Every structure is written in structure tokens, then in C-alpha cells.
Amino acid sequence: MKIVFLIHNVYGIGGTIRTTLNLASALADRHEVTIVSMLRHRTSPRFTIDERMTLVPLVDLRKDAADTADPRLHQPAESFPSAEKRHKQYSRLTDLRAEEYLRTCDADVIIGTRPGINVYLARFAPRHALRIAQEHLTHDTHSTRLRSQLARHYRGLDAVITTTEADATAYRTRMRLPGVHIQTIANSVPQPHVPPTGGSTQVIAAAGRLVRAKRFDLLIEAFAKVAAERPDWSLCIYGTGTDKDRLQDLIDDRGLAGRASLMGATAHIEAEFAQASIVASASDAESFGMTLVEAMRCGVPVVSTNCPLGPAEIIHDGVDGLLVPVGDAAALAAALLDLIDDEGARRRMGDAARRASKRFDPVPIAATYDALFTELGATRRSRAWQRGRGRWRARIGRSMRRLCGEIADRRQRGDVGGRPDGTPQAR
User: Fold this and answer.
1) Is residue 40 a contact partner of residue 14, using CB atoms and an 8 Å limit?
2) Which domain holds residue 258?
3) Residue 59: which of 36, 32, 80, 87 has the closest Cα?
4) What is the pTM of this model?
5) Is 35 a domain residue?
6) What pLDDT is stored for residue 394 in this prediction?
């Protein structure tokens, strides 16, 4: 079977890139896999690409690349949804390259990995291919305008895959998609090739984009409380982002220089987590929580805010990690101190985390996708019938709403009971 993944930019660093490559590599054991990157900004990807897979970049943004001289690169995208957060990074050239690739694609399965790309998939992918949209963000974090744009196109897909059951429920109840299979399949994380320290170091680690939603400021505030009581412990934060300068200022203002450090981005976060005794996450919201699973696979317990949607579906509170209220620096600090002061608990939770995290191994996740492909192929006709019935019901609903509106307007004008031209009927 030929499988194609569509991704924003596989040459960068990020959770969607990591989990896509993990799954693609596992599927390559049985299938022919291609990674199509909408954009390319460097010569080689930061993550290792399985040599069994084919990599196809569509638009080359490297300096002196021919695409940078194409005037369509500077024209706004028309097919990529305007309400999508990355709309400004897309162009008319991206639209056309994506359409050209998809219309001529001979894949059996095509999987999109972000909302705007899933719209490309719905609009341009050949009908013979199974069209599967992965949701690495969440339904509720999308704007009302984007949800409206997605609903219009997602009706033409075969499946929408979410990373949490809570998000799948949101799609089932708030976005009417007749004939579209909605299923939860967690992101996959392989077993790391580095041995854990066993909870013996005095290091707390964290990782993610340095943006406000990740609340690294809250983590730094919590660590300030920790550092005051346990001065031998340090905090290492991995990642890059727009909040870097603000976070560095906060570290300096709290007198944590040399104790709390912004380490920059790394393509090998497992090696860093394996050297820590605790991994922390202070996010206000997570669509899944890749860093949580990566830490657990290294045998490191996680202290995380119990934010929507992922952490509570990953961490068993008090067993393989700790969950604390969102936005509560004092509770986060207290949980960190509990683990700092109890090395035995750290080891027990780390061992439990390693065992529990096996459910995220790429092999069983790939098997779940294989089963999904089989099911979608077997239910094509029945789902097409549901989709057609859904379109018919939607048309009837629109007609009834339009008719009710017209009647209401006529009543307001005093035309009820009159002729179509508005003159009164004879009695």
C-alpha cells in the first residue's frame, strides 16, 4: 500500500514532525511511505528521516532557490483557509504545488497533519485514495471562523483522527460530519536509545515552544519557590519561540541566573530528559502532550498541569506522575518539592511511567492505523450514503430556515395571508 503524509515543514523541529516521522517509520515496515513537506527552509531535516521513506518538498524557501523568484510565492494563498494561523506562511505557489501533487497522486492513503493542509486534502486528493485528517491541535482552540471553514471541507474526508478522546467527542458533538469516521489514536513515541539516570540527578527539565500558552513563566515562578528551599536543584528549559526574551528577563529578575536556563532547541530531547529526575509542564492547554510521553518513555516522572486535553489521558495521577491545577504556581512548586524530597517516589513513578508509556510505542499505533485503513475501505459505500443523506438533510434545513425567515419578514410587514405581490386576498 502507498501512504503519503502531508506536513507543513518537516525540516524544522516540533511535536507534529516528531510523531509523524515516528508513525511513518513504523508504517514503512509494511508499506511504501512518502513524506510531502509543503515548505522547505534548509538543506537537511533536523530529525533523522528513515531511509526507506521518500521525502518530497513542494516549495523551496532556501536562499537563492528558484522558488524564491516565483511571483506566486508573494501572492496570498487562496485555497489554504484564511482563518488558519499559518495562512501568511502559505502562498498561491503553495496552493498550486499542493493541488498539482495531489491531483496526480497515486497513493492509496493520504494523511494530512494540520487544518489548512487537511483542506488541501479534501479539495484536491483523488477520490480513489483514503483521505485522513489528523488533528494535532484541537477543535476548541480553532476560531469560530476556522471551524466553519473546516466543516465545509471536512465533510469530504474519510476520517478525522484526534489525539485525545475529549477532542474526538468535541468533533462528534460540535461539527456535523456525516459519513466521516472520527477516532482517537494517540501520538506515537519510540523507546529511546539512552539509559535513564534513575532519578539521581538534581535536574528538572521542560521542553516546548517558548510561547505564552506553554506557561514557562509559571514554571519559572514555581521553580523560584523550589530554588529557595532546595538550592542544589536546577531547571533546564528546551525550545525556542517568541517568549524567549521575556522568560530570560523573568529568570534574571527572580535571581535564578545559573539555576534556571533556556537551553535552546534540540532534536534529541530524549537524551536531555534521560539526564533529568523530573520533567515539568505548566501549559494552559495541550492538544496531546508529546513531551509528557517522551519523558515517561525515558523513565522520568512528570509533574503537569491538568489542562485540557491531553495530560489526564496520559498521566495516572500519583502513579506515574502528578497533576496539578492550571495556573497555580504554588501547587506546581509543592508537587515538585514532593518529588524532590522523595527519591524513592521518583524511582517508583519513573518505573511506572516507563511501563505505562509502552502503549505509545509506534508498532501498536501503526497497527491501529492499518486496522483503520481496512475499516475505511470496507465502509466506503455506507459512509458515502450517510454523507449524501447528510447533504440532503442540510439542504432541507437551509430551505426551511429560509422559508421561516421569509414568513417572519412578511408578518413583520403585515403581508401574511396576502398574495405574492403583497395585495390582500379577497374574503
Assistant:
1) no
2) 203-360
3) 36
4) 0.86
5) yes
6) 57
